[in-house]
Amino acid sequence: MAASSIDYARLYSEGLPDPTPRFTPFPPYYFIGGNNDPEQIPIEGLIAAADTVLRREGSKLAIYNLGLGPQGYPGLRQFVADKSKRHRGIDAPIDDITITSGSGQGIDMISRLLVNPGDTVLVEEFCYQGAMNRFRKLGAKLEGMALDADGIVIDALAAQLASLKAKGVTPKFIYTIPTIQNPTGSILPLDRRHALIKLAREYNVAIFEDECYADLIWQGIDAPPALYALDPGCVIHLGSFSKSLAPALRLGYVIAEWEIMKRLLPLKGDSGTGALDQMVVAEYFSKHFDDHLPHLNTVLHDKLQTMIEAVEREFGSAAECWVPKGGIFLWIKLPQNVDVRTLIKPAADAGIVFNAGPDWAVSADNSSSHLRLCFAMPSKDVIRKGVAALAKVCYEQTGIPEQSGNVRRAG
Q: In this structure, what DSSP letter does residue 128 have?
């Protein structure tokens, strides 16, 4: 390939992210990302939904936003309204719902609406990397909120807010994933939700509620109403279809009262989220959501059990699992003297990729021994083999786990 005749390096703007390497196929043991189980995509159902909706409304694709405005396909917004009311207790008209190109676009819009350089934003001490990166890119200072097995520790948050107030600091908002927290998989109990809202009102701090995993809850476990359902006046709500149906469809949604929504819409920055995707998902889920989700969650829970059993077998007492109540991730803590970042390259050399804890935490100080594994996409056999391979790498690099299946077989 001929070299460019233009020296583009001198033309690039400042502050660009690192260049992207060429795409390579997934390694054998791919435990990162928010991918789902390929075998659970309802292909025939989506084909039927596409056929139906294209025959009924396909001509509207000739017009940006289907000629129906920037908030998205009304059929999908109505489905979100109905689903959110039945499953999350949210009573919102479709004018308070906007469809986005994945939840990532929603995070971008809400961040741009609220964050100025130097603002303080409260996030859970272990938290979604994508959100933290966006807040930091806009110049926010992140403060971590303490977590336990049930989510945000309210007493600690109350003391934290009081301390910040004493310093003259009012956080711009609280970003929380209260229902199937990422990466820990916890569900914030109802009493803590009420207490969180009470603190938000007391300190005049908005709440940004991310519920992208709230549809993926194990059978027999109930989640309290969404924070938005308890007080729409102090909460902006974010949801997604990436986990409940398919990540590549790139569909999410924001729910906010109109006074907020009318300021969010100018920040959408596109000519509309993919309309055909919206039409197909609305057609399919309006008929099949309540049978698709229980089946998907059963499959995911079964894979989780396989991964937990593999971790217990291969790592023994060296690994402490935060057993999730839903979702697609397992958050694991290794002994304090293991820095998982030192395992990244040798693991990659062995065909294993995983998420290192510091990338999913406000600070590396309390997360360097943590890692996140996604169990949704790989098969059970791949999960077993991949966890065994990871334990082998860990033992070779750190001498831990001493009682792993690898050590026993080597003896």
A: -
How far out from the chain centre does Cα 285 lie?
A: 21
Whole-angstrom Cα distance, residue 183 to residue 221?
18
Contacts (Cβ under 8 Å, ≥6 apart) of 243:
34, 36, 212, 213, 215, 216, 327, 328
Q: What element of type H or E holds 85?
A: helix 74-88
Rounded to whole angstroms, the Cα distance separating 400 from 395 reads 4
Residue pair 127/234 in contact (Cβ under 8 Å)? The answer is no
Domains along the sequence of the chain with CATH: 22-41+291-410 (3.90.1150.10), 55-287 (3.40.640.10)
Half-sphere exposure of 320 (CA within 13 A, CB side): 10
| pLDDT given at position 405 | 52
Q: Which residues contact 24 (CB under 8 A, 6 or more apart)?
A: none
> Look-up: residue for tokens 């979702």?
327
Give 149-187 pLDDT, tens digit per residue: 999 999 999 999 999 999 999 999 999 999 999 999 999
What the block records as the tokens of 53 is 């909706």
Cα–Cα distance, 390 to 353 (Å, whole number): 9
